[in-house]
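hi! just following up on the protien thing from before. the input was this:
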Amino acid sequence: MRDLSNLTRFSTFAAVVALSVLSLLAAAIWSAWFLLPFAIFFALSLLGLVDIRQPHHSILRNYPVLGHMRFLFEGIRPEIRQYLIESDQDEEPFSRDARSLVYQRAKGQEDARPFGTRMRVYDGGYSWVTHSVQPKHIENTDFRITIGNSACKQPYNASIYNISAMSFGSLSANAISALNRGAAAGGFAHDTGEGGISRYHREGGGDLIYEIGSGYFGCRKDDGSFSPEKFAEQAARDQVKMIELKLSQGAKPGHGGMLPAAKITPEIAEARGVPMGKDCISPASHSAFSTPVEMMEFLGELRRLSGGKPVGFKLCIGHQREFMCMVKAMLKTGIVPDFIVVDGTEGGTGAAPLEFANHVGMPMVEGLTFVHNTLRGAGIRNRVKIGAAGKIVSAFDIARALALGADWCNSARGFMFAVGCIQAQACHTNHCPVGVATQDPLRARALDPVHKSVRVARFHRETMIALGEMTGAAGLSQPCEFLPHHLMMRQSDRSMVQGNHAYPYLPEGFLVDPDAADHMGYKERWSRANAESFQPPETAAV
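and the predicted 3d structure came back as:
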């Protein structure tokens, strides 16, 4: 099947080569007039050879000659854009605009647009940052935060914008290499995803956030359970800066996964610590703990085994009471994670069941606000840094997340665009046309990791510059100064609401103060949360 698809990709190139040969024979046998089509087909054949060898465009490397049709359509895009915007058959506006923005920044092209916004500013859901009549100029846009509370021995000075979790196996070796090299060049972090630390993560030299999922890949025993010894070996690497326990992900929260044996290469088996010829299972839940207290104790063990590196967890909020169970366990055990990453259900770059992608899990804005206010209510917000993920591509996306309580942001989608993803939605087929989400070596070779790493670093740098300009326009000195009142939102009835009214910061410590008033039903849920069990009381609301 793979061989057939490879033949299809090169069929146009093969056809023009064959036609050039036939035209030359016809000119020699019948008429010199056949030299004209020979010249055309020979020129196209040379073009195809150039396409295969050039490192800049993955489409052309995988689809020589034929791939130029894509660039032809891109060239006439401004003339047909208005029609596309109005067409019901057009792709999701966010995806189109975000991908265009990333491509321009990654390629170093001007991203300013004439004739104002294309957003429907009169529609519900439109939001914006308020600006000041006394804007500031921010020279240094290398915005960073320190992650690690008092129990952390090796705090990490992180960029406020990093690469979100994408595993080797889901992405190709060249894509992982390009991302990590770009992270090293740009001074930001690369989350490994739950697929473990591959040789391509190590070769790039970029800072790593080692994600541990329910399969414990890279730190598992033969039976699939957690191996403290193997984890300690992995966590001891200088490249590993933080440890992230994955509870759930935005694309398919509460859903496990399986990598079929047929797709497991020797390199994937090496990174994950799994055998060849056997399906690789990611269970829906962890086997190392089953209660909130056990979870905190496990995090404490990860911190000890890693030599005191920052330890935290990632989740998409589901039952709100369950997260409160975790927070109560933090208070009970005294083990407080250094960070929590809130993944929104709108996030996720790979294949997921449609129902899960659309209707399971809490969106990032609501999830982030809930986590932020629960930690504030428990009186430990100052000890836990919060990361946010879920369609965070532009400077505005980052500013909004910071205003609503995040300390930093992660992006998978944006950095996939930077390495050349065109959203062909073929991630699950192994036939990615640009070599990003495939383990087919012939398709993956289309992605040149050295060239694409430059785009990754450039996209990060240009986005930080844009964030600095937006921060200055708001009259602020640092992005961390964004607060809810810097946001305005248009509601469905076309009225405006200020961010601190829609998503207010709740009082510090109100959940643990018996005399404090309830806010938005938080205390009612808090009263039903139990540090000893995730199971609800019979009458509990989620």
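The CA atoms of residues 308 and 368 lie 26 Å apart.
The chain has two domains: 2-70, 144-472+480-502.
cheers
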